[in-house]
Amino acid sequence: xxxxxxxxxxxxxxxxxxxxxxxxxxxxxxxxxxxxxxxxxxxxxxxxxxxxxxxxxxxxxxxxxxxxxxxxxxxxxxxxxxxxxxxxxxxxxxxxxxxxxxxxxxxxxxxxxxxxxxxxxxxxxxxxxxxxxxxxxxxxxxxxxxxxxxxxxxxxxxxxxxxxxxxxxxxxxxxxxxxxxxxxxxxxxxxxxxxxxxxxxxxxxxxxxxxxxxxxxxxxxxxxxxxxxxxxxxxxxxxxxxxxxxxxxxxxxxxxxxxxxxxxxxxxxxxxxxxxxxxxxxxxxxxxxxxxxxxxxxxxxxxxxxxxxxxxxxxxxxxxxxxxxxxxxxxxxxxxxxxxxxxxxxxxxxxxxxxxxxxxxxxxxxxxxxxxxxxxxxxxxxxxxxxxxxxxxxxxxxxxxxxxxxxxxxxxxxxxxxxxxxxxxxxxxxxxxxxxxxxxxxxxxxxxxxxxxxxxxxxxxxxxxxxxxxxxxxxxxxxxxxxxxxxxxxxxxxxxxxxxxxxxxxxxxxxxxxxxxxxxxxxxxxxxxxxxxxxxxxxxxxxxxxxxxxxxxxxxxxxxxxxxxxxxxxxxxxxxxxxxxxxxxxxxxxxxxxxxxxxxxxxxxxxxxxxxxxxxxxxxxxxxxxxxxxxxxxxxxxxxxxxxxxxxxxxxxxxxxxxxxxxxxxxxxxxxxxxxxxxxxxxxxxxxxxxxxxxxxxxxxxxxxxxxxxxxxxxxxxxxxxxxxxxxxxxxxxxxxxxxxxxxxxxxxxxxxxxxxxxxxxxxxxxxxxxxxx
Amino acid sequence: xxxxxxxxxxxxxxxxxxxxxxxxxxxxxxxxxxxxxxxxxxxxxxxxxxxxxxxxxxxxxxxxxxxxxxxxxxxxxxxxxxxxxxxxxxxxxxxxxxxxxxxxxxxxxxxxxxxxxxxxxxxxxxxxxxxxxxxxxxxxxxxxxxxxxxxxxxxxxxxxxxxxxxxxxxxxxxxxxxxxxxxxxxxxxxxxxxxxxxxxxxxxxxxxxxxxxxxxxxxxxxxxxxxxxxxxxxxxxxxxxxxxxxxxxxxxxxxxxxxxxxxxxxxxxxxxxxxxxxxxxxxxxxxxxxxxxxxxxxxxxxxxxxxxxxxxxxxxxxxxxxxxxxxxxxxxxxxxxxxxxxxxxxxxxxxxxxxxxxxxxxxxxxxxxxxxxxxxxxxxxxxxxxxxxxxxxxxxxxxxxxxxxxxxxxxxxxxxxxxxxxxxxxxxxxxxxxxxxxxxxxxxxxxxxxxxxxxxxxxxxxxxxxxxxxxxxxxxxxxxxxxxxxxxxxxxxxxxxxxxxxxxxxxxxxxxxxxxxxxxxxxxxxxxxxxxxxxxxxxxxxxxxxxxxxxxxxxxxxxxxxxxxxxxxxxxxxxxxxxxxxxxxxxxxxxxxxxxxxxxxxxxxxxxxxxxxxxxxxxxxxxxxxxxxxxxxxxxxxxxxxxxxxxxxxxxxxxxxxxxxxxxxxxxxxxxxxxxxxxxxxxxxxxxxxxxxxxxxxxxxxxxxxxxxxxxxxxxxxxxxxxxxxxxxxxxxxxxxxxxxxxxxxxxxxxxxxxxxxxxxxxxxxxxxxxxxx
Lengths: 774, 774
Description:
Strand content of chain A: 15-25%
Number of strands of chain A: 33
Distance between the termini of chain A: 34 Å
Largest interface: A-B, 59 and 59 residues
Number of helices of chain A: 21
Radius of gyration of chain A: 27 Å
CATH architecture of the domain at 32-304 in chain A: Distorted Sandwich
Oligomer: homodimer
Shape of chain A: globular
């Protein structure tokens, strides 16, 4: 593999720049994206760029309900498709040297270095460029989206004249509100201007239809050759702009610091937006760029505490996992339970909506282990807040009595995807939401969340499954017809094993949870019964158990007489081929084959039966998992970013070490190495949690076992000398050091915890333990 | 049933008008539509109307490729969705009496009569209206879209002053080019103006993207109180307009005759459009309205010759069937093999594209029997012309070596629908196209079309099926996975019996056809072999036979031990309910149930297994058909306009007379009685051919039998005293008179033909035969 970017444990580094390499330029814009959970954006150049670019700045929770109807819209289809909105371009700096505009697409570039410091969350860039008029300049830029101040973006832009004669330089700092989404169906504009406030250097825009208002306030400080320069307000239309003109001699520098406050009506009454944005920008301006940067770096240091992963012996893997952690930390902070983990985070506009089942299946364990219980709890609360919409969503599909179907994709709880085979049929997502509650309780060892909100969610979900399963007379069992499993390369299948198994599990778990809350939190239970009408019309638990116990689970007997759980009925009628037999030029098949050809093939997009075996591995055991891995993995094309990680974990678990490592590299460096040639569209944020799981659960072998205790069973790739990581676990922050034949664990914050190594349970405190393993 | 329109054997009549009854006004606009195969439009008022209206004027073959993409477009999806385009409003007349505009939505209407004379193809309207200013006028309008001149629309508009004092009347004749489609996703305009030629009263517009150019030229003649009035050219923007002002005394009339030539770049080089439209308008103007009308009526008389149906004893049924025939005659004339039978004809804009499998399955037999061989042959040629696109379409889906998949919906041969479950999967349409060739040969008794174009089409279709079927190891048979059958209330099912049966039949028929052409037309065969590479890589016929003979056809054993062909695998796992048990307020289910609920239900939209038994009734026999009818019909909700007709025929065939009649009324008066409350959107043109089939094949019992001869087995509804109809059959025009216990047949044009009545074959000539039947 030839890598375009340097391998470095803490940095993403690009040296050299070729404006003609369009997709690579855009890929770098994705890879160097920065954000702070509340907002973020692509690493577009501050100054004008005439080459290929995808400009993108996004504010969490702000979206546009796009219309996607055609003549024959069917009943129950979602009203809209939620587009993640590109918002005002806040980092803008427009440079003229003499009459010539600085534009890297037409300059001769003598040096170029772009760097993302993942430890500090700083995007920086230095370059030397010769403009078409022959003037040579050196530029150094540092930019942050402040982790300390959620509403602040800041940058420092320094330009030094390197030519032998002096020149007049004009520097215009701007925020441009007239932006578009690339995926707008009719090049429609999604924002309308509300006010351009020249006096205070501020702009207010409002989203069409959804009516979100956002205020941007810009503050600047400019020095040329060390002396302050005053600017001229050149704002117009939907653009705040301040122009600074100075004459530089050779070697002199003009330095512009810029602070932009971004306040939205998600967080402020509209009447207070102006004051809020102004306050943020003004305070930052008064403190100065270096102070703002210091606060930001301090906040990043705190975020990294307790979640770093250190791999010795494999720098590419090291960089890959840090990149994943960095992206996850800057996409979701847990500050706001209305936000979630968008599949592209703040790095691109593809995919509508912000919340997929990725959150529950992949991201929740990451935040639970690395950011502590409260952040993960916010993700659970997000779904609890949206329970009424989930009930409404199910009602639209004909379900009743408080049955809840969580949306496949959402911003606000309403479904906002627009393909029936996904929206209506990929209902296994409802199970993942229940599983996340279970997973949270299991890992934290606490079940109080069931009383807080979990049980209500579980009741709604159980009611959905109890109604969605129907009785098949020929089979004499309950069946779930017309679903799409996690393998979206099959649509509208009957009796998907994963869905049926998960549904039955949900029904049982909801009963158990209800019994637990009734016994332990009787007041909450009364409140919940009153709110949900649980058992009002008879014994709901009995019905749930009947459906769970009577659930049909398809199996297939292989030629060797062993059985496997069958992905869905009829799967074996397909021509059985192996993914390895697909000619390389036809991979990925989703870019080369028509949709029906994919549907008709036996090829699997991502873990389906294996997703179930992963979730419930304690219930199945290694031999069963191994048999299914050997059956399904060779049929899997891994064309979802969520696929390699689960397979890597299962490969580790079943001793398929080489395959585990191969699959790990594919997940952890998916974007850095641009495996699927699509990074220009944005990064695969949610699957980065899967990469982390591959390391910690797969190679680290961390798992809460049937005994409810934390187990560690290291299975390091051959190349790795050691693997160290930290986990938040029941109040303790545990640092694990896994080397060849050895496990070390220490409680970093001194709080004790129990950890099982081998067959034995150890109490770990600040003195740590060191255990030899086979 | 309370009927809004009068029942009359030859006319559609509406008396009285309530501008506030929006949907009814719009329904009348649909029901009184007129056209001539090349163009047509809704019965919008000529003068301004401020109430609810759907303005629609359509030109055959002219469409717009609308964009319907969302973020995750899948491979092989069609590039566009073809919208039928609303074009310039040519019949416009704007009337002012004094300062007051004539607008029926704000007038007091003292008399109103709208009439569609189906025999003559004339839309007329008379009314007396009191304007808000108190002036009373009487208006009489006659309008035609000339059946004699495909590019001519003409109307006569007479307004008489009925108030006691005189008034100034201004009459503006106009053609308005600034029109929209109601179903435009973003209210986008699909036409752009090219030229407004004030001198010659002409307008040229061009469609966006597709670049069709159309020229409208208007000519007028106005008399007030018998004296010519000269007009003033008030054209502007995209509107040709000529204004005539006159002062009328009580009882005096202003009469405007208007002729509009409509020439399109489909039929003329762009440079000649202006001359073409001018010539049409000018000739008509010179001849005068009455002469234009006479030529039009003469053309209509010729169209009706040989296709009328006369029902004695049931005036509603009589009107219903004439309405169907009238619509079919004015929608498709066979003049132009690039055109086809759009599902809404010229009566509305709903549904994209113009050609569905309706053409082959339903319309072809109608035109074959009523308009003679040449018109039907044009429909076959339409598909032959589009064979290269069908091969391209299949190639997009991964098929090769000349396999052809005809599109589900098309304008030009390219697929232009946008739902994968239809486009990619509803592939049975490919079988209907083969069946139409077979049907044509069977009915005409001639197989020369196989050599002309049929065989090439059959080879492409057979190659598709041979590749699309795959071998199931567990079944040891060929299977067809992932299809949508005619019952579109199931998507992506495996082994739909109808599809599998039809595929196997196609494979055999294509072999037979090839052998026939090889033997009878060796030169053509050599040409076809060279063009298609037939058998170039081995014995294709052997492969076709292997797949046909090995085709899996699902069956199910009922409780009584009898078997039925099973609609698709897994159908019996569904909850088995009967359509009669669905509460009335939930019907039609497609307006009340979410799409997934419909998919999961056992309810059938339209004939599926039964469609196959209808096509191949000779292969199955009455007992088998009866058993399947009794199994499937009660599960059928008939929510396609194509459903009741096939069921009515099968009910007749199997002696279920009462049900046959019920279903017939539902099909023949579907639009006149607006069963589904959707006539305001346009009429169901293609299903009208099904209504005709219900009469002729169902009640008339006309069928080409296994012996290749025309059989007649009358099964008249109890209420009907007699049924008479004419058929084109192998050169003869046969008039059938079916009464109680009697069949009369005579050759109207004197050409002899053989007809089987009872067990005996008769030679019928101009003396006719009269046979007693049981």
